[in-house]
Predict the structure of Beta-galactosidase.
Amino acid sequence: MRIGYGGDYNPEQWPREVWDADYSAFELAGIDTVTLGVFAWAHLQPAEDRYDFSTLDAIVERATAEGMRIVPATPSGAMPPWLARAYPEACRVDFEGRRHVYGQRHNACPSSPDFRRLSVALAGRLAERYGDNPAVVAWHVGNEYGGACWCSACGEAFRSWLRERYGSLDRLNHAWNTTFWSHTFTDWAEIVPPNALSEHWRGPNHTAFQGITLDYKRFTSDALLGGFVAEKAAIREHSPHTPVTTNMMGLYQPIDYHRWAPHLDFASWDNYPPEDRSSTRTAARMALAHRLMRGLRGGEPFWVMEQTPSVTASRDVNPVKRPGVLRLWSWQSVANGADAVLYFQLRQSRGACEKYHGAVLDHAGRTDTRVFREVADLGAEFARVGDAVLGARTPARAALLVDWDSWWAVEMSDGPNRNVGYLDVLTTYHRALWQANVPLDVVPVTADLSGYDVVVAPLLHMVKGDLADRVTALVERGGTFVTTALSGRVDEDDNAFLTDVPGPFASLLGLRVEETDAQPPDVVNPVTLFGTEYDARHVFELVVPDDAEVVGTYGTDFYAGTPAVTRASRGRGHAYYVATLLDDAGVAAVLRTALGNLTGPLADVPDVEVTERIAPDGTRHLFVLNHGDPRVVPSPVHGTDLLTGQEFQAGDDINLPTTAVLVIRQSEAVPDPQ
Amino acid sequence: MRIGYGGDYNPEQWPREVWDADYSAFELAGIDTVTLGVFAWAHLQPAEDRYDFSTLDAIVERATAEGMRIVPATPSGAMPPWLARAYPEACRVDFEGRRHVYGQRHNACPSSPDFRRLSVALAGRLAERYGDNPAVVAWHVGNEYGGACWCSACGEAFRSWLRERYGSLDRLNHAWNTTFWSHTFTDWAEIVPPNALSEHWRGPNHTAFQGITLDYKRFTSDALLGGFVAEKAAIREHSPHTPVTTNMMGLYQPIDYHRWAPHLDFASWDNYPPEDRSSTRTAARMALAHRLMRGLRGGEPFWVMEQTPSVTASRDVNPVKRPGVLRLWSWQSVANGADAVLYFQLRQSRGACEKYHGAVLDHAGRTDTRVFREVADLGAEFARVGDAVLGARTPARAALLVDWDSWWAVEMSDGPNRNVGYLDVLTTYHRALWQANVPLDVVPVTADLSGYDVVVAPLLHMVKGDLADRVTALVERGGTFVTTALSGRVDEDDNAFLTDVPGPFASLLGLRVEETDAQPPDVVNPVTLFGTEYDARHVFELVVPDDAEVVGTYGTDFYAGTPAVTRASRGRGHAYYVATLLDDAGVAAVLRTALGNLTGPLADVPDVEVTERIAPDGTRHLFVLNHGDPRVVPSPVHGTDLLTGQEFQAGDDINLPTTAVLVIRQSEAVPDPQ
Amino acid sequence: MRIGYGGDYNPEQWPREVWDADYSAFELAGIDTVTLGVFAWAHLQPAEDRYDFSTLDAIVERATAEGMRIVPATPSGAMPPWLARAYPEACRVDFEGRRHVYGQRHNACPSSPDFRRLSVALAGRLAERYGDNPAVVAWHVGNEYGGACWCSACGEAFRSWLRERYGSLDRLNHAWNTTFWSHTFTDWAEIVPPNALSEHWRGPNHTAFQGITLDYKRFTSDALLGGFVAEKAAIREHSPHTPVTTNMMGLYQPIDYHRWAPHLDFASWDNYPPEDRSSTRTAARMALAHRLMRGLRGGEPFWVMEQTPSVTASRDVNPVKRPGVLRLWSWQSVANGADAVLYFQLRQSRGACEKYHGAVLDHAGRTDTRVFREVADLGAEFARVGDAVLGARTPARAALLVDWDSWWAVEMSDGPNRNVGYLDVLTTYHRALWQANVPLDVVPVTADLSGYDVVVAPLLHMVKGDLADRVTALVERGGTFVTTALSGRVDEDDNAFLTDVPGPFASLLGLRVEETDAQPPDVVNPVTLFGTEYDARHVFELVVPDDAEVVGTYGTDFYAGTPAVTRASRGRGHAYYVATLLDDAGVAAVLRTALGNLTGPLADVPDVEVTERIAPDGTRHLFVLNHGDPRVVPSPVHGTDLLTGQEFQAGDDINLPTTAVLVIRQSEAVPDPQ
């Protein structure tokens, strides 16, 4: 066994002679894993009453014969034309209230009984047919679940979901604060999905009633999950032991992956970082997504189910990955917990919207291209490392909290400032932790915090359940808590706490926020922290400290000199409040203080990422990745680089060219962290 | 009696113990006026056949007992869910032709017979129940009327409105110039509302036929007014003497408030100035809106029905009002004619889209906040001033003409330049008048001009009725008229005058406009006026003077040296034409010349607003407001500042810190201006 | 006979006394041609069962009596209200899937049988009534055909069109690559028009399946053509010899004019250049459009059917034409092959959306305006030149290929870069040829290339039929071929060639493109050509030369030093490949080298356009047009300027003020080029 390597493979789109060429190339590239049948529905079931597995049989037979690890997909990510024609209501109604007709993918109404019935039946048939093939290592259900539907069937399903959640209209009316603007519902049937024709203005983030819109997001996440769960159940009937997953999308706003996590046997995701000219920002963002995925299943390894070997196609501008970047980013996946690294796609599509998306094999099928060479070199490296890091984990004493409800709530809030993006703030805080190479868990607000020394929770707008108690306990026992402006504002229903801001955290933080000023993006209020000035923007809370110590102060405006950053001491620990949105350096300054000695190796070396994975047998592997310019760093450990065989003593110079990767097996194992 | 002070109050959203806290706070703040029941429909009528006034009874009883002045609202600004479900056609069809379902507010079709019936019935019941309560000082119908509907019922109502207006299709075809593009209507039923599915492209301001779109705007204004009038009539049946109003929105394009004015017993409006970093620009804009509102009812005092004590919530960025600004702007309202200054809202909403909108009492209900303190201090000042300025008026010998038809016509015109905004030009001209502290009426084009010495009419695109004659008479008797580029272009039907431009004004102005050049916003043509160069932009008319004197000339392009500003002498007066859009300083230069000695006190002191209100007994009150940096100015009068008791002789230094306000009762009264 | 001069004339919109004034003015202006009845449908047929030609009879009678050349229009560009009411399905369904109701123009569904029947019947009646009037010189069908419809009737027509094109669903499925995303169609009825409700996202250029969208563009072009062809046939029944045309729109993306060309008796178009502050860029663009129109009919003269004498109205900003520009641009039309130059409009509209569009006669009907004077002066010049250039042609040895399929395909492609615009690149290459005054044909890819020495084909994304063979033959016999990045990518179905890029051109060009890098617009990679650096942007192909010579190289990034421009020698000729998008100067540098001695007169004089037209009798006329600043140039020929009578010897100084125009009849005629 070794790190899974391969990707989406669609030989049904090609004549048999191409299959031969494919396998020759796979061998050159060290590819051992194929995902089969994504989007093959029309192929597998050309009519409602007719299945045809003949080609897929041949594909599976060949893959098996070639020794591939096989990941069969269910094809529910794209319905066939006959289905849309037979069941027009299986197509979605969009945010504008328009019923769509046949086209694109990810287009099925999650509440359509016909779509559900047909997709589940096909999943069952696939499992029945291929479930006992020992080459099948995992099931891949659907594809990149997402989007939403606002049809009347979803309306009905939403009302059922609401009955389940609230029990009574009184409770619902209270939750949504419907006395405002005369919205008191007197019959469940009066409730319609919130969209451009009902509660919204200026798009999905502008709603008259945050409550209904927030619940519709929760409902949609659950409704899509319903499809996954139903297909998984059908697979389980025939394939009871093979793990089932779906390819998620990392930092994807529309779906609350924390609600999905219990239903996944392992996590997997598609790594297509958005365009960003800063390679460090991109690297940090990918690391955050890897860690979020790793955090879904309590730190278990995950798969990168897709990445492009070179270019994407759907962006406005699709640059090629620079030399070395594919390798660097692939190893970064592994460094952050991936046990498999797959491509979309093994052979480039002939036509339609992804024909220019990169692939291991281009239209001419060449194996003498730069891209293929980089793919093959990486395959060779994976082979060299073998199973060394499979199943390895990354213990952490610091946690970053991610909360989809807060993400949704803060971005659909009217006031104080539409320029505040949850992900912007989250990635800023994460970047400082990542830059310091802090071993870090990225976990939901429901996570057990008892194992952490530091918990960082930016923009924790909504505070649910006993979170405040758990955070207080963390601090009392000597831990550190860091939160920011716009946290502690609303309860689970998105209603304001009728107390001082920041609500349940006010007493822990030893302060109240009396006012919240907001300014356009070009307005900077300098904040002085530890003698240095940093830029703050967007939101400026006016803090009235109770017993909190003032750590930083505003520099201008009528609140110049008042607290911008505070620290309260509680028990043996500390609770920091950052009452504004600081720039990168300001956030780093706060977090470095808050972290104390919890920073990782080479914390002060810019652009060099260091992570550790500890194998089940206790062997420690240190990954050193250079996302920036060439530099020389001291080795943090004794050990041997698995990629080159080079040995290092702690403190030895390590030469890090741009895109350098080292996987250092440390000389002394640690005890099993379990 | 004193200046009304209070605001929107919704105790039905809170438990009774909160009511107690509210009234304690109101007493601290000097609040004596509450607007009750805005958006309370679902509460008051939980089903079509069931009314429930029990809570409102308690609210009114308590408010009465507390000595409040009560302004009951009719709740027609937001329909309840049961109504939308029972009568789906009561919901609007939007500009895109989509029937909306239940959501938001201001969402009722003005032509819906069901909505009309139900809203009027409820208004009648409210008046029946509370009309004889002596604490009720005014009725507030609906809320911020606005928007439009394009449904088939509106189509039918529009056709009736057109029959009424035009009598025959021939007249309509001529008015809309339908021979252009084969639009000759041969049956009334062929006429459909103009929207994105019929005459429009690129949105509401781009239409193939300006005539139908203009008439639809007039129709919509009348249709919404129809709802107000019907509710008012129902109120009048039970409450024959209490004045009825609705809260308007100042410089609001969609509704022609001049068409509404005769139906209002007094004017009131909601003062939420748009984001503008220049406090002077904001102050001037608010002054314009106050004066427009004051002008609706011949100079009678009006109410500010809403303003926020601190932040708004619906803007992208919602800054807090800086210290002193609430007081300054509230006094500015009074200085410009308000007899009441109310807040939205007295207690901050718990949830939904206005939960972060500012309030007198925040979520924690604190009375020790900066905002509450400023509110309370202002309440104390209002108490101190008492009834001194109630009913006081501001005589003016200068008028600024505002014309919704011109506003609509010039902004939906194809050619010459879409970057010309009516409000931009109007506010530029007003700002120069405001800066000069000219006592000013802002009046419709139908106003009696016989009492004015100077009439300023920017962008008077459409010329209706006998306006040109009245303007000519003004000039002949020694008055001054100032108008601008793009004036005098079209008749009441938006058809071009088939004469030289500017149509009915050409002879008065002594010139013709032969061509109209237009340029992008970054192109400046310098105009030399009285030896100084000013920037001109957007539109450059090429003027052929007849007997007009050339006052300013263009500096560049093929028309360099030709007239940009002219003055014609007629009888004892003058008529100015500004053939381009000048910058602030250029407009000020023209207007200072045109005004002659009509400027007000401290006309040359930047950012200091001075207005006068003369009480019914003839007492003169001079308001001095500093919207800018601290400065010292000479007192323009002898008198006593009602806020501090300080006495001034004319010429004494007045120290004006930022946001300073003085209300100087002048030592010598003048005779009653009536 | 002389150059046709006049324009759109709508006396039916005016009382008879205005007609008298019109003709007096026409005489002053030398106007001899009138286009009648555009948009007169409602007027001519006030009800389905009633025609009324009385006014048009009078109009035609008067025009005939006045000696006008008459161009009757069919009015199908705008349906009357009664038609839309009687046949709601004659109105279009838009890209968003919304059925429109009555409004605007160009609004008829091309698949509506009712619209077709009624429009054809009226065309037949017009031809029957006026076809034998000898003053009728041409028929003008419809107006500015364009737009599209997505209704179910169009869906049905599209499916028929597809059956015709593909014969079988298997062939269609292969063409559209439907195995991708499970789109395999198993019944023709499953196919729906591609729009926002089916295959599209983010608008018309973003589709999941390029194949269906491309075919819908082809279908739409054909469907609109169907209307033209049917009306033409009806006219032909009564007017068998008079030529029939329609006014096209030059560089208009939605219609493939090459598919229309065989059905036109002569080409005509409306010249409204888009706003561009560079007069040279505008001039070059108009020249390209003229040449494209000339190329539709094998080099035959065409008409400018519309241009404005001064301003447009539909733009955001509508500047006046500067003095001399109307004359310069009108002569430019003639210089590039026009035999008639007409205006929209002869008298300015009274109302609706074109009331501010310029006209020969303004609202006041003045003939003493600058615009009228320029119109009249030009009329006098046309009279002076008489028939000298009528029917004259412009032989060329260089060709620029234009291909609507490539235009559509490259702009709807996902990847590599959405910032690449076909027209941007085409106009850049044309501008370099125009600046060099190269006699140039602008022709389709199906054109016979055997007469050319140089063929330039930018962004030839799609390669169809035997084009590669014909290009290869051109090069083999000593010609030169120039093509660019993103050429040779897809076949006629928009599927990638399964070979090295650039597909069928790879062998001719002696290279393969291994990767295509893309960058945002602000990223420049300098390309060094012949020792000089030029800017390249957007797309950077990484070229692996086979036997191509490297002409230019990239300056930065990991591919610095690799080929950016290459030249392969084949037979006696050369094939250039420009693997990136160069700036103007870079393109000019490549083309100057490629052209060798094929440049025209004054090729190095900026902004001076020189073209030649050779009359049927062999007389050569050299047009010299100055689009830039004043300058003096040597006369390229011996001859006499027809406008001034001035004689020149070759080499004499010609004084060229701004907007100068000379029409030099050369002293020695050449043999008939036929």
